[in-house]
Each structure stands twice: as C-alpha cells, then as structure tokens.
Design a protein that fits this description.
The structure is a single chain. The chain has about 425 residues and is α+β, with helices and mostly antiparallel strands. It folds into three domains: about 35 residues, no CATH class; about 120 residues, no CATH class; about 240 residues, no CATH class. Helices cover about 55% and strands about 10% of the residues. Helix 2 packs across helix 3, helix 13 crosses helix 16 and helix 14 crosses helix 16. The termini are far apart.
C-alpha cells in the first residue's frame, strides 16, 4: 500500500491487495492491513512472526532455557539456527530423548544425522562436556497436550535415522582402514589426476619428506598419510561426507593405530576455513601440508588455476591453509624445494599417461622446463595469498611490498619476520 491505498499490480498470477492469511492452523480467516506496521502486528496476532531475526532469537532463547531446566546446555550451531528460523512461522521449542542404544555411537555421527536429516539441536552435559541423550526440536505449532505427541513422533523418526547410522558404524568397523586402502583405486580424484589411491601415494611420499624436515616421526607421518583417505570407502562417510577424517580417526583407534596417527588422519583436512584451528602436532602438520601441497601442485599442473571469479577446487583456501600451518608452527621450510619435489612426484606417480599443458609426457615436461614455470606460478600464488593474509592482519602494504620486492626468499616464516621487523 501507499498512503493507505493498495498499489495495483500483479506478480506470478497473484493480484496485489490488502489482505493476507496468518498461521495455517492457529489463525482463522483473512487478515486486513493498510500499512506495514499494521501488517506486522496483524500477522503476529495471527501467529506469524514476520521478522526472521525475532524468530531466531526466540528459538535460541527458548532452546537455552529448555536445556538449562534439564541441567544441560545447547550446542551452538549458527547454520542450523538460521535455517530453522526460516522454516517456522511461530517457533515452539520442544525437547525429546535419544534412546540409550545409540549413545555408544560417536557423537559426531549423532549430531550430523540429527542436524542433516531432522534439523534437531544437540544438547550437552556441561559437567562432562559430553553430548547428552536429549535433543531440541522446533515445532511450528502450539499443541494442546504441550507437545507430547509432537515429541513422540519426532523420537520415532529419529529412532529410524539413528538405526541406519548405527548400522553403518557397526559394519564399518568390521574392516580395518588398511584393508580399505586398495579400494581407493576405484575412486577417481580427478580425471586428469588419477585415483585417490595414486593421490595417497603422493601424499605419503611428501609427508615423509616434510616430517624429516620438521623433526616429526617419519614412519608415523607416512602411515597416517597412507590411511588418510581410507575412510572415504566407509558407510558413515558415504552417508555423511562432512565426517571424512573425523571417522578415519575413530576407525584408526579401533584398529589399534597410535593416537599420533589417528589424530593426523582427522586433522589433515584442517584448516577448513579462516576460523578453523590448524594442526599443532608434528605428524599432523606433515600430513596436512602434504595433502594441501598435492592439491595445489596437481591442479596447477593440469591448468585448473583459480580465476578472479572462480575457484572450484578451493585452491586459495588450500594455500592459505599451508601458510597458516607454517606460520603457526614456526617451521622453516623452503616452499620452492617442497614444490619442486612434489611436482616430481606428480610426474612419477600419477601423470604417466596424462597430457598436460603441451600434451607431452611427464619426462618431456621435465626436459622442456615447464616444471620450472609451474613452480614459479605456485610460488607466486603463495606470495599473493601471504600478502592478502598480512594485509588482513593490518600490516602496512608498503612494508609488505618492500620485503617481497627483494625476492630470493621462499621461507614463509623468515618473510613474515622481516615484515614485522620493519
């Protein structure tokens, strides 16, 4: 409306007007509104909260209160909170129970299953820090029985979901990760970069090299690298891909692998974003760096570099991950040497029959000097990412440019130390 009068127009076959409807079950008849203020208030009277931020705050407040009343606390999940706030017009938080038979399943599986399939919030015991056998669900209804039937229905659905998850968990542990490594030969990493098995071979070789340079246990680093992708063949990761690495750690511990190896399997994907923690243990650092350097060198080798508007293989994130890991650990590593070595691994292991930039064999590429150009491109890419990272920290751009203009330095720790010294 404008000045209280309806502005006549039609959109998608619907004619403009001054009437609408409230909640499907909690409101009766049409709602009339001449102004936006009237519209918002009338909808609320009809059990529809128009403002998504208000719905979000109601859900968060009520979920925390319900959890507190049980001596529990809500496990924060901003993404789920925003999603659920867009699904309920009149949000009502209820709490249900997870059956005890599922509580020996890893909490990550329970949380992911509830979040992905049912949009439930998980609760935690603040005394132990462990996930509780309760969940919070957001209904879009005020029930006469206080929500008992709604909770019971959700518990029945959850029982079926978690039964599937528990089945995968139990079946997966019947095979060791080692027995699954050969199955990676059937999983293509990229049409031009071979299988996941070939990738694991490359990562294993490079992880050993890095481990030696940073004083990590070489045997453990190579073992973790060998098993790092084996959980991709499991039922749980097939159902919940976001648990790759996390499940690898559980399976490794079940198989009797040491904690250093198991933790490295979990952590080698880290950091997955700017706010994610970086690996700190030496073995984990070696495998995480090897994984990301293989990703970068491989996609640069097949000319799948990021553009101004596109980065489908998350190479910027991988490069920033390498930078954050190295700077956080303080390890002095020659990026040029590591990159050169890994380009060699790519040629030897995975690109034997793959045409590259000039449709030549790897041995011919080595002879032609294309590898040198590839290494230079990769180093420039790291340099650009490091500059961006330093600028985001508030470092003056002229100081950054002054240090980087000197060239002949591929040790990220020393580069940053020089910038900070100015």
């Amino acid at each position: 409306t404008f000045d209280g009068e309806v502005v006549p127009f039609e959109f998608a076959g619907v004619q403009s007007g001054s009437t609408t409807r409230g909640h499907r079950f909690l409101s009766q008849g049409e709602i009339f509104a001449r102004r936006f203020e009237d519209y918002e208030a009338a909808l609320k009277a009809g059990h529809v909260i128009l403002d998504p931020e208000e719905r979000r705050e109601i859900i968060l407040h009520d979920a925390k209160q319900k959890a507190f009343a049980l001596g529990l606390e809500l496990i924060a999940d901003e993404g789920l909170l925003n999603e659920v706030a867009g699904l309920a017009e009149w949000p009502v938080v209820l709490v249900g129970t997870i059956e005890d038979q599922f509580m020996d399943v890893p909490p990550e599986i329970l949380q992911t299953s509830m979040r992905t399939h049912q949009k439930y919030f998980s609760l935690r015991d603040p005394k132990t820090g462990k996930m509780a056998n309760r969940f919070a669900v957001v209904a879009n209804m005020i029930a006469e029985d206080g929500g008992k039937e709604i909770v019971a229905g959700n518990e029945r659905v959850l029982r079926a979901r978690l039964s599937d998850a528990k089945f995968f968990w139990d079946q997966d542990r019947k095979r060791t990760l080692e027995s699954r490594v050969d199955d990676l030969k059937k999983i293509v990493f990229h049409a031009k970069l071979g299988t996941q098995y070939e990738r694991v071979e490359r990562i294993e070789a490079l992880a050993g090299e890095i481990a030696e340079k940073i004083g990590a246990d070489v045997r453990k680093a190579k073992r973790a690298a060998r098993l790092s992708k084996a959980d991709l063949t499991t039922g749980v990761v097939g159902e919940f891909p976001e648990l790759q690495g996390v499940m690898g750690r559980y399976y490794a511990l079940h198989d009797g692998e040491g904690s250093d190896v198991a933790d490295a399997i979990r952590d080698h994907y880290k950091p997955v974003g700017p706010s994610d923690a970086v690996p700190n243990a030496p073995v984990s650092i070696a495998v995480a760096l090897a994984d990301k350097l293989d990703q970068l060198a491989g996609f640069f080798a097949i000319d799948e570099k990021p553009t101004g508007s596109s980065d489908p293989y998350a190479l910027r994130r991988a490069a920033l991950g390498v930078i954050r890991i190295i700077l956080n650990s303080g390890h002095k590593l020659s990026m040029g040497d590591l990159t050169r070595k890994h380009v060699g691994y790519i040629g030897e292991i995975s690109l034997r029959a793959i045409p590259l930039a000039l449709q030549s064999k790897p041995s011919e590429r080595l002879a032609s000097g294309i590898e040198n150009a590839l290494i230079y491109e990769l180093m420039q890419f790291f340099t650009d990412r490091l500059k961006v990272a330093l600028k985001e920290k508030g470092t003056r751009h002229d100081l950054i440019d002054a240090v980087f203009s000197l060239g002949n330095e591929d040790d990220l720790v020393r580069l940053v130390a020089r910038v900070e010294a100015l």
